[in-house]
Structures are given as C-alpha cells and as structure tokens.
Write a structure and sequence with these properties.
Elements (H helix, E strand, L loop, with lengths): L3 E3 L8 E3 L3 E2 L5 E2 L3 E7 L6 H7 L6 E6 L6 H8 L4 E4 L5 H11 L4 E4 L11 H9 L4 E5 L6 E2 L4 H18 L11 E4 L3 H4 L8 H11 L4 E5 L1 E2 L11 H27 L2 H7 L4
Parallel strand pairs: 5-6, 5-8, 6-7, 9-12, 10-13
Antiparallel strand pairs: 1-2, 3-4, 8-11, 9-11
Helix pairs in contact: 1-2, 5-8, 7-8
Length: about 270
C-alpha cells in the first residue's frame, strides 16, 4: 500500500495518508469524491448516466424531486451504495443545495440526470482540483468542448450573459449556464448558495470569482437528452439568470460603498472623519 499527501484543508498542514484511490493507469488520488445527481422522473435516463460513472467514486447522492415514476428504484438497482435524499423545495437550486448538504466527500461533482453529461469526464475535473484549482467549471465552448443540445437562440443568450459576467466581475469564462462542475467542499462556505432554480449555476460561477477562488475551465461535451423533455425555458430562465447577475453586481457595489466609508479603512488611510 503506497502513501500519499492528501491536499490539506485551508489553513492546515498536508496529511500523510496510507491509502489511495486509483482512477487511471497513471493517476491515484486520496480525496473521496461525491457525485450529486438531481433527478425527477428520470428513470429511463439513469441507466445511461450511471453506466458512464467511474467505479472509484466514493459516493453517489441522488436528490429525488418527488418522482412519480420508479426513478429511485432504478437508481438503487444501478448503484447499490446509492444515497437517496428527498429534495427540499422545487427548483434545481433547491435540489443541488439539498444534495451538497448530504455529501461526505472532499470533492463534489454536479451531474445532470438526463444523460447529457459523460461521467467519464469526471477524471478531468478531479485532476484540475487535485492540481490546485478550487472550482473546476465545465465549458461547452472551451477548446475541446461541444454541445449537441443548444439552439442558436440559447447559444446567443449564453454568450451575451457570459460577456456581461466577464466584464462586470473580472471573470474569463467561455460558458456560463452549464451544470457540469466540480469543486472542493470548502468552497460552499464561501459562496453561500441561496437561489432555487436553474440560475444556481450562474450564481455559483459569479460567487466563486467574487470569493477569489481559483477556477479552471474543463472542456466538456454536452449530449442530447436521451428521454423526456427538459424543463428549461430559454426566455424565462434567461431572465432569471440576468436578475441574478444584476443582483450580484448591486451587492458588489454596496460592499464597495461600505468599504469606502469604513472607519477602519479610513484610519488605515490616515483620513480624519
């Protein structure tokens, strides 16, 4: 049994561990990886989702959105060690927050239940994290990525919203509204998620930048949903994303104003009130 240095939690020294988890012929890791899958009536798609997940994953957390089909039963048959948690609330943001709270791994990966994501790409996300990134962000438009499931209108909207975020928050994203991401668990303490719907991914992308976390984009290919129809509505959800951007921008201005008028900051500058 080989030993390895486990990446430390912030402010702590590295820990010497005597176990590792092989994830390829050239790479082994020590941090346990949790995969969160929000699902509602996705029984037909789950066999494709679970088939692509690597077997070295520490745990899979299925967040059940009150499914009326046999989503939970199918998932349990596909992954015997599955952890199932009932979703609080109704939106995707609610589902992800519920799932994150149930995770025990040091690394958390977000995967959709519609079969559009390739679980084989998880290794790229994990490699980025163990190499120093705090947040590994999937991108369909980075070199090597792609999508089979975006109309021209959605591509245009994603580009416009991404451009606004890059300019307003100093980010350098190539994709904004994509749900395939991974991060160290400690990031949750710094981004404080508080939204309910599809805009949760945008909120995460903005707040990791505002928190000064290290972000690395991972080229990812988005496939077509295999069965069923998406609940995503381009105009409705695009407007919700825009509201999140404007709210976060407003909060940032308010913080700057408070900082400028802070007595402590004035004292450091030698200003007299």
């Amino acid at each position: 049994m080989s030993s390895a240095l486990r990446p430390p939690s912030p402010g702590r020294e590295p820990l010497l561990v005597t176990h590792y988890r092989p994830i390829s012929s050239h790479l082994a890791i020590t941090p346990p990886v949790s995969v969160v899958i929000p699902a509602m009536n996705e029984a037909k798609n789950l066999p494709y989702v679970f088939k692509s997940l690597p077997d070295w994953i520490h745990e899979v957390v299925l967040v059940d959105g009150n499914s009326t089909d046999d989503t939970v039963e199918v998932a349990r048959s596909l992954w015997p060690r599955l952890k199932v948690v009932p979703q609080r609330g109704r939106g995707k943001g609610d589902a992800l927050i519920t799932g994150f709270e149930a995770c025990t791994g040091d690394i958390i990966v977000m995967v959709d239940a519609d079969g559009s994501a390739d679980g084989g790409e998880i290794v790229s996300y994990v490699c980025a994290l163990v190499s120093g990134a705090d947040f590994a962000k999937g991108s369909r438009f980075a070199n090597g990525g792609g999508t089979d499931d975006m109309t021209f209108v959605r591509k245009l909207g994603n580009w416009a919203l991404c451009t606004v975020v890059n300019r307003k928050f100093g980010a350098r994203y190539t994709d904004l509204c994509y749900g395939y991401n991974a991060f160290w668990r400690h990031c949750l303490d710094k981004i404080d998620l508080d939204c309910t719907g599809f805009e949760v991914e945008t909120l995460m992308n903005i707040r990791v930048v505002k928190a000064g976390l290290r972000v690395q984009e991972i080229p990812s290919h988005e496939y077509l949903r295999i069965h069923g129809t998406s609940n995503l509505r381009a105009v409705r959800d695009g407007l919700r994303v825009l509201r999140v951007i404007l709210r976060e921008r407003s909060n940032r201005r308010a913080l700057r104003r408070r900082m400028r008028h802070s007595p402590l900051l004035k004292a450091r500058r030698g200003e007299v009130s």
